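cache lookup: miss for this entity combination. No prior model stored, computing from scratch. Input as submitted by user K.M.:
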Amino acid sequence: MASIRLKGVTKSYSNDDRQVVRDVDLDIAEGEFVVLLGPSGCGKTTTLRLIAGLEKPSSGTIYFDDVVVNDLPGSQRKVGMVFQNYALYPHMSVFENLAFGLQSRGVSRSEASQRVNEVLALLELDGLQSRRPRELSGGQRQRVALGRALVGRPSVFLMDEPLSNLDANLREQMRIELGLLHKRLGITTVYVTHDQSEAMTLADRIVIMDQGQIRQVAEPSVMYSSPIDTFVAKFVGSPGTNLVTLPWLLDEQGIACGDAVRLPIALNGLLLQSGPESVVVLGFRPERLQVEEIEDGACLRCIVDLVEHLGSHIQCHLHLDSQVSEQRMIAKLPGEADIRPGQAIRLYCPLPDVRAFHHESGRSLMQGGDLLETFPSKSATDFVQSYDLCADAVVRHGNERA
Amino acid sequence: MSTAPPKLLAPLRARRTSEDLPSPVAPRPWVRWWITIKLKLVSYGLVLPAGAVFLVFFYIPAAYLLYISFFHWGVLSSSTTFVGLKNFRELFAQPLFWRSLLNSGYYTLVMIPATTLLSLGIALLLREGMSNRRGGFWRAAVYLPHVTPVVATSIIWVWIFNPHFGLANFVLTSLHLPALGWLESTQWALPAVMIDSLWHSLGLYVIIFLAGLSRVPRELLEVASLDGASSARTFRRIVWPMISPTTFFVVVLSTITTWQAFSQIYTMTGGAHGGAGGPAFATTTDAVLVYQTAFQYFHFSLAAAMSFILFLIILTLTLVQKWISDRVVFYR
């Protein structure tokens, strides 16, 4: 097993100025299961290939266990890699596919065959030794590819979207098997995917990438509850967080965001960090919106555009009932809710589930992510000082409105 | 993977059959028969243009050729008499015929491995540049000779192989090698023709091999490199088996074209002056002899018999190659 460290790693290709991977810093602990998640073209596969030694970084350093491996070819890094399309040698039998690497490394015939049989037994592939890849089912091919990566006893396991060629049922089954395999073998694993459910279920930590850069590294639950910026908030979850950009000001009843969203006064101090323009990006998770009125929470006035019945719940596509902005939103509501297109409704979001982001940088306004951590008390009286502080902004805002 | 027990699927299958669901338009037997006929007519109609070309220019002449070979055939006179296998007997008694087979065999035996290995080698060199402009230049450069007219370039090669002031001997002497007689020597005339043929045909095979190499997925090579395989081992165990259909195709194609090689031999050995196949029959291959027999000595039936034997030889070779390939070539 090995730990991996990437320091300031950048990759660009000679015939193109674009940096595919930009200044990536990442620490992967021994035995950890790390998932690189991001939209296509975000540089996650390139990062994996850099770790595998299939690409050389343009700058920066890659360490395996504190040893610089920049100039070490992939074969000497002790990595096992699984490709999206399996990349099995089509003209070789299952046995030969697994034994090829061992024989290339000079492992004796008898030992190689013993190790291959061990791995085949581990992956429940015994009996298929002499089959060619095309005579196998998708799931079996997938397992052979896993086996080929395992048989060399790698200290690092790299997987590039290994499940995306399987149908939905099989994908779920293989996902569970992969999780179990990792528990059993404890090999440091870097896993690339664009599928959140794989990332959420498999990862010890998720790395979210966009445009060649790392956006956030966090445990799955933290990634969901405390997105560091609007990109992560939008990307994680299905559907992702609803983001609405609105001007805000204090009035007698609390905080008014545009003319369609009201927030409790408790959020005042938080919103003050959004800068002098008094514009804020608010994030509401679709599954945290509700129709039942709550005292201490955000309230949104919306008009329903479309209702999708999904059995367990309904998915409402709506837009803010506002003169300022008609931003589109999605809400996941209980299946029994009686909502029809064209209807004007009020949605509520509990205070701890409201997220706020800086409207220019997109960064979260919550340090540590949790609102209650940032503001331990929900009582309005604690915010009298902050109320004074923002008086200027409010006055100016009021003047602009008038 | 496991299949559902047939019992579960049985009701589903039963529901699908047309007996249960009365189709709104139940075609009567003669309608069905008419549809089948119409489909067949359309299919054959579509094949007809290409088929007609083949029939008129290939199958009919080939059959006619076999027919001619059993006759004594005069071009101008009407004295066409059936002679049975006499032409073939005459042919086998002729030492020059055997000599021409020997020449053709020698020519083919050198040309096939040379063509295959050289073009594969060049293709491997060019593979790296498949996607960039410089690679495009070299690909074009290698392919260019193939689009030039054989006769014109062969005349240039005659000059190159001129023993007294040709480029070939100039290169040899500047490398301190002995100058050769080339087309004027019985020993080197055929090799000189081979060099010209290689130069002319290589481009085509390089392109074919490049196409074959591009079908080897990049991931396979990457996996092999992660598996610690050397480039020689990767080539031997992965690339070579995976391009074997291409190699087989190249071998068959080059076998056929070399057995039929005529224009370059005819031009380079003085066909324009009536003396093709020289010196001293050193370059008289099958194809040259067929031409001379037919169009210089006007012995058409003998030439037809010869052509037929040439056809049998090529057919046999191809069948042998096919037989080998079925055991060696890997098709995905």
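stored under new cache key. Chain A touches chain B through 27 residues (CB under 8 Å).
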